[in-house]
Design brief:
Blueprint: H1 2-15, H2 21-44, H3 47-64, H4 74-96, H5 105-114, H6 122-132, H7 136-146, H8 152-159, H9 163-182
Length: 187
């Protein structure tokens, strides 16, 4: 943990130095780009969308790194930006949807199966469908806890929500996912 903090401090120091900002940004990408991609990907589902959101996220990080005050951990700040970008993307996409076809489970399953970057089995397809049906806050908390294994304190800092509320959201999300999956026939 101390190495991670020193490394984050070094990355921040370089990124805030005009002469070494590119070096710092490259190190930040090496350390966090894949984690941010998968966090975003779980929220937006499709690879191309995740890449677009990630690029917007990275631009925002590069432009705003000097405003990072260090009141939270660097990865918490990065996840907050990634989360907000993904939520904005989803809201924009929802406004643009004319058809309710994208809400159909079979359409989601077909999109996932056709995605060259998705290597999951039928159980994972059904899990994604169950998660997609959760309310936005529960979906986000479930993904952060289940996939990213983020602790509640870090989530609390990132989302500005109490630990108790996050635990309740996760509990409700788990129950809904379990209920959904218990009614699914796996081939």
């Amino acid at each position: 943990m101390a190495d991670q903090l020193i490394q984050d401090e070094q990355i921040l120091m370089w990124m805030k130095d005009d002469r070494q900002s590119e070096r710092g940004f490259r190190l930040l990408l090496q350390k966090y780009q894949e984690r941010l991609y998968w966090h975003i990907r779980r929220m937006v589902t499709e690879h191309e969308d995740a890449n677009d959101v990630l690029q917007n996220c990275l631009i925002k990080i590069f432009r705003n790194i000097r405003q990072f005050e260090g009141k939270s951990q660097l990865y918490t700040w990065l996840y907050r930006i990634a989360t907000n970008e993904a939520i904005s993307f989803l809201a924009q996409k929802k406004r643009q949807q004319v058809s309710s076809l994208d809400n159909d489970e079979s359409h989601l399953a077909n999109k996932l199966r056709a995605d060259a970057y998705f290597d999951g089995n039928e159980v994972q397809v059904h899990l994604q469908a169950a998660i997609k049906g959760l309310p936005e806050k529960q979906k986000l908390v479930f993904q952060l806890r289940y996939f990213d294994e983020m602790n509640y304190q870090d989530m609390s800092e990132m989302l500005g929500t109490s630990v108790g509320a996050l635990k309740a959201s996760f509990h409700h999300a788990v129950k809904k996912v379990e209920t959904y999956l218990s009614g699914v026939q796996i081939d």
